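Input record (Table S2, row 623):
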Amino acid sequence: TTVNVDGTAAHSIPPLLFGQMFEDINSGDGGIYAELLRNRAFQQMQPNTIEALFGWAPINGTSINVIADPVPLSDALPNSLELTIPSGSSGQVGFGNAGYWGINVNASWTYNASFYYKFPSASDFSGNLTVMLQSSIGAVYANASVPVHGSTTNWMQVVVQLTPASSPVSTTNIFTVTVDGASAIGEKINFAMFSLVPPTFKGRANGLRMDIAQTLYDMKPSFFRLPGGNNLGNSVSTRWQWNATVGNLIDRPGRMGDWGYVNTDGLGLLEYMYLCEDMEMEPIMAVWAGYSLDGTSLPENDLAPYIQQAIDQINFVIGDSSTSKPAALRASLGHPEPFYLQYVEIGNEDFFAPNSYIYRWRDFVGNLTATFPQLKFIATSLPSYPTLDPIPKQYDNHVYQTPGWFAENAFYYDSVKRDGTYYFEGEYAVTSTNASDLYGTFTDGRLIYPNMQGSSGEAAFMTGLERNSDIVFAASYAPLLMNIANYQWSPNLISFDASHVYPSTSFYTQQLFSVNRGTEYLPSTLPQNGTLHWSVTRDAPTNTVIIKIANAGMTTEEMSFELPFVGVQGTGTATVLSGSATASNSPETPNAVTPVTSQIKTGESFSYTAPAYSVSVLRVEVK
Ligand code: AHR
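Output record (alpha-L-arabinofuranose complex):
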């Protein structure tokens, strides 16, 4: 295959072309959010049930129960944990929390541990609470002692630091709070709002798990789509509401998320904005737009309060703190300056409710445009249906498909009309090799982890996104993160467990495209509609030609390139990700496929062999 490259750029590469799509789909709580204790505040739990004790266990014969506290810690947290020390107790008695499928105990970290306690009835008790990190069989890694007195009948916060003496390989560890049983017989102590947090990404308070955040950052994403996805809301009452996710943690009630578990909302709107700032990306933020996954579309007459809530949400992010209450709240929480925001997405996948989207789009966008004329709004129905007014300038398209589909659709956007509409490929991924069962079981073709057949197919599609980036302004693989101990969706870009991160072949594909964007698109001989695809960009500041090649086929491909420049250097680099069709980075084989960079001979004419199932990035300098 011969590829002739044109020296005149066709268009510039848009600044947001590659980024990330995030929602809590077993990826926020117990994932990127650094909190280690599960069910830390008994949010949304039914008191006096076994389920309410999820994550917690008694130690040494105590009785623990989640109660509706007559005097709760806060209105948002009505439940507390009641510890009763029974007669006959001896030794250390109390309770423990096993974390989100484990707790990573690391001797190089100091953990901040905290909780609130009170004695529901005054007593003469005087003693110590012992706070520890232990193995599941009682080896103590770190401990701290907290004096308590039975006269403490109002909530009192305890904050201690725990520095483990060693770093066990195993993460089946527990956080425990105990008291000397013999001296506390008959006592009741209530507890609320626990927390155990290791050092966080960039040291941010209430921040992010370092290794996961670093991996996201290493992709050099330009945007972060939040907070969903489906997690925008399964019903009107359980929808994601920005105001319930900001402020003191004890004022956040949590909500039943859309993926089958309670979201703590510790990772709230402000934390999302800090995440974007700390990772040098901009948010693409969704507002709930009157439709829930349970099928409810609100009637037009009922929309007003929800539109106001969306306005408030946006004002929290970008409003002027001297004129807007939500913005003043942001300022009071430590960020007087507005955050950077250009794009607001109106709902998620509203192609599921196209008829009501006609008025919901009209009313949301009409009001939001009047308040924020500088913002750009993204529609989430199909560009082909229904006809919306005002005409959307941006659409979010989603596709989950097979490797073959992605390679065959690398030209998807080439035939799309240039009519002033811009596209966000907001979710895409190979989910299965089985076109008739895209969301099926592993035995029927569904992937657990991305593999090279899928990733090279995605890369083929991405060369098309790059070629068409005059109208495709942003694109993100989805979903982003998967806790291998418990997940609702596969495959995901990055997997993790309590102590490891496993970047997939699709992660490396995204990273290769993202860190090798260039600033302008150079037209070249078009690929045939097969499995070999490429696109060429130039990084103007460094005068480097960047060639991306996706070979989604089972045979190597011989290619030759003709560059129309004088001064093309004789040596360039090739960074190559390749493996067998099923080669995949799993927890068992985390580094099965990683990019390898080597020098190659380049020049005005040069040849390159693209391995089967590969993604290659060639960089050639022009002096
Ligand atoms: O990425 C997983 C889900 O796929 C998203 O929540 C939803 O938008 C899409 O259907």
